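Q: Here's a chain of 164 amino acids. Please give me its 3D structure as tokens.
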Amino acid sequence: MVECEMCGSPSILKAKVEGVGLNVCKSCSKYGEIEISYHPPLSKNYLKEEEPPMKLIDSFSKVLIKIRQNLGLTQEEFAKSLNERESIIAKWEKGNITPDLRTVRKLEKIIGTKLLEKDKTDSEINNSGSSSDELTLGDFIRVRKRQQSYTPEVTPPLAVNKFP
């Protein structure tokens, strides 16, 4: 938001104060002549919902090659249709580099195939249940507490007379 250049509060007016154009608030506008009244544009970010993190599918390069070949295009022709360099397409197909999110979305529209998948965040991985056999620090602490709370009664060994 634009601040008043005189007092620092939010400003909504443009005024000429002593010959200088300033952004001023309503109370400071009395020191000059109001030129125009405006409202700062609202940010469009409030309309956008936060998208889940997305990642490129693991077989991206293979899928790209297959689709390009099914379309009967060379790398050069495919690059021209995407407005990319041929060397970039070759690197995508080799798996040396991956395109940015915007380019992948453009590719999805042109090709008609999903190339992005939802990326699991750390919290989703932890909530999905531990199907692996790996011990976590929490598991270790639980096992340790269980061992400390379990103290088996130790009975003295029976006296056995070895000599008759």
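Q: Can you summarize the key feature?
A: Residues 7 and 28 are 8 Å apart (CA to CA).
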